[in-house]
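Late entry, written up from scratch paper. The run itself happened at the end of the previous shift, but nothing got recorded in the book at the time, so transcribing now.
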Amino acid sequence: MKKLRTAGLALLTMALALPTASGVALAEPADDDPTVPVVAADDTAADTTEDAGATDNDGTDEAAAPRVSAADVTSTACSSVVGADQLTSTITTFSNSQVDAVTAGSSYRMNITGTLANGHCAGDTITVTIAHPLQGNANASYPIYATDGTVAGQLVVNGDGTQATLTLNEWVSTRNNVQLDAYLAVSVATTATEQDTATWTVDGTTYNMPVNPGSEPCTDCDTMPEQAAKWGYYTQNDGDANDTMRITVQIPTTTAPNTTFTITDTLGSEGQRFSCVEDDLNWRYYTSLRPDGNLADGDSTYDTLSKTDTSQISVTQVSCEDTTFTATVTIANAGVASRLYIPVLVTDESRTEFPDAVTVTSDQGYSGGTSTTVYNDQGGGTLGGNDMVPQIDIVKADTDGNDADTEDEAVDLTSTEGATQLIFTITNIGSERLRDVTVTDEITKGAGTVSNLDCDFSQADPQAPTSGTTWEGPFLIDASFTCTADLTGVTDEIHEDVASVDATGWFTGTPVHADNPYHATSTPPVTPEPTPSAPESTPVTPEPTPSAPAPSQSTTPRKNTRGLPRTGVDGTSGLAAALALAAGLGAVVSHRRRR
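Output as recorded:
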């Protein structure tokens, strides 16, 4: 990806101190390199475990590196930022050693670290204000890399070095729990005094740090080097070109003519490799130093010295691989010191530290070695976070709170004649805001009707509709809203209706779905059957009793006697028959009762 940097910016890093025989630091002279660093790294400040003091906008002092309560963020692509960034800022040396004061004329690393609020979008910004006597590198532009190596933002310093703006790109919009670790180089004015205070503001929180006066003038800085030394510069390149480093190897002053030194350099970490292009090598020689430690004479291949001119110095690249480089340097005369500049390509620009070590030997018996770490001390940083995972949830219940998710939990709606109101609660349970939200309900079993489905989306976003079944969003993380519907017509057959919600990840475009059933039954009222009426009785006409035959007429006249008429049975026999009949009827009645 093309890095968004200011055209022509070639900022150098790590103008590390060069030790002399007396142990006094000598700065690498500017004429060693046509691209002079705007500020120089300074790791000579005293270490301390205390951070810079911070002051809120209300002017009250707080403990070091406080958390801020609100983000200085403007959103150009999204509806809002959820919560607030939690950022802190400190000033350290470029090796990240803490300091309790800054020194006039020195340069430092301003760190901006913390957690970004979920919901950031492309175009959101974080602002850093830099006040006198501090100043950033004017017009500098530093990439902020994601952990996967892509550019996730750009930290740009304005034209006078008084403000830096970190602009986030679309990478942050698809991540949550994003951690920021950014930094930029700041220098302290050489005219600063103890009466000054270094002041800067990050995201609305102001930090302060005391200022120490500049260092004492250098002493014995004109002493020629007797030992090997090493330091390096980091150069940020525009466009797609790799950033580069220049490793400087200080070669001791010769004690005899025609001395040959062998230099072997070994890189100590990933993210860097030697260029191995012999034409990229450069060198210089000199015979004296000024009192301030700068070179007083000599020449370099950066200036007018031709690489084919071997009258004073001759350099040969013996071997070169990605992590190991070997060269020889032959000096024609005694009393001459030299420096070899070895090019290194940066293959992982998200790194901030690049260690390596060198050994120097000579055919005159010298043997020495040293190591150094080159820092990308101009600015940059990293962003790390979790990929967004969209998810949605729906919970459905009736007005009495019955979930009725299964048939075994079916609610008996007999008392309400097979009717109830349903309530859906829909929540964004994922780690990404959602769009294109649609709520539906479908009967999948049994009788019944679901009607009047309606949702109040404004419960999730005050700007959202208060009624409807569809919403374009954004449906923010952890937000929720409710819908209602009327269920009627449930019978004694098990009823099932399923509420569903569908949506799409706002940034990832991933579709999400959730559903929840509701079960019910109802016993219809029983209509009593009519009691059958007794059948009407039909009058029975008794059959006529046959008449007894008329007695034959006798010619013999009857005898007129007094007493009862004769029946053919004498009285005694008749009485006995009546008694017998009565006894038999009694026996029959008695038998039937005992049944």
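The two ends are 110 Å apart (CA to CA).
(Scratch paper discarded after transcription.)
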